[in-house]
Write a structure and sequence with these properties.
Length: 304
């Protein structure tokens, strides 16, 4: 009897009491599969080099890049939550189990129920027959498991505005002109390798509470008489403004042929994800101006 008790006690000591895994509750989850609609998306450009090409391509990881080898670190001796494969119970969002009201007082008609999860959607991408984004840009669909990250307060939301050119300006075609972008509440000059680390890191804030990242300038030509949304795959200029702002301003030089153009900004995190803020209702954080390029100078032109 005594030996049996000792064996039982010894088996308890060897059990993995340190590893607490959040397991899926079958009654708490929606079926994700019927929500999925397979579609193809397209990305363009290499991320941060000026280009006049409108052709899309798939980025690949350089063979010379040393990529760490992952092993399952869930052992009693591993106490670093950023290395563990186990979801820390302290970060489980119980609100994610709530699909939201779709009817009743104060609910807008047509409101859609949210997907739900009891484990922070950690295995969400396992529901789809798609490749993981895995830090790569792709012409096809993929699933990205990276968390959104840290959101700034409403007092610290970023905003940008074109100082030059301004909408309605006529620029000299085939001559260099300067684009100036004023930046507010953004820690600029931070950009990861766009070919290897695309969307692979969450949004972060600096000690000042501002999002850390960078902005871009993209130019699209507007066909005469166009009344349709422009094709996002087509652009005549794209450049990442990767340096730190000077006097809260970023700038670059552009040269355009004759035509009508839309010049826009795209403000992103270090890993090229469009910036995300903590409330749904907010002002536009990026900017757009409309200009035309003409050879020679019209008498009433406000040329830059």
């Amino acid at each position: 009897m005594i030996s049996f008790a000792l064996i039982f006690l010894f088996s308890l000591l060897l059990s993995p009491v340190y590893s607490f895994r959040i397991r899926q509750d079958d009654n708490a989850f929606e079926n994700y599969r019927h929500h999925h609609h397979h579609h193809t998306t397209t990305t363009t450009g290499a991320g941060h080099s000026t280009t006049t090409s409108t052709q899309s391509h798939t980025s690949t990881t350089s063979a010379s890049t040393a990529i760490p080898t992952f092993t399952d670190p869930d052992t009693p001796n591993n106490k670093d939550p950023q290395k563990s494969f186990t979801l820390d119970p302290k970060v489980v969002c119980k609100g994610f189990l709530n699909p939201g009201n779709i009817s009743g007082p104060g609910v807008e008609p047509g409101t859609t129920q949210s997907l739900t999860s009891g484990n922070n959607f950690i295995n969400f991408c396992a529901e789809f027959d798609l490749p993981l984004t895995n830090g790569l840009q792709s012409n096809g669909s993929s699933c990205n498991p990276t968390p959104m990250g840290v959101l700034p307060s409403t007092n610290d939301m970023p905003s940008v505005m074109f100082l030059a050119p301004t909408s309605g300006d006529v620029i000299k075609a085939n001559q260099n002109f300067t684009v100036q972008l004023a930046v507010s509440n953004l820690n600029t000059g931070s950009f990861a390798n766009a070919d290897q680390c695309y969307y692979s890191g969450p949004q972060t804030l600096g000690t000042n509470g501002f999002i850390t990242g960078h902005s871009h300038v993209v130019v699209q030509e507007i066909p005469d008489g166009n009344k349709q949304p422009l094709d996002p795959r087509q652009f005549v200029f794209f450049k990442g403004l990767n340096t730190a702002a000077v006097g809260d301003q970023l700038e670059t030089t552009i040269n355009l042929p004759p035509g009508n153009y839309r010049i826009g900004s795209i403000t992103t995190t270090t890993n090229h994800v469009p910036v995300t803020v903590s409330v749904a209702q907010h002002g536009v954080m990026d900017d757009v101006v409309y200009v035309s390029g003409q050879e020679g100078m019209p008498l009433n032109a406000s040329a830059k």
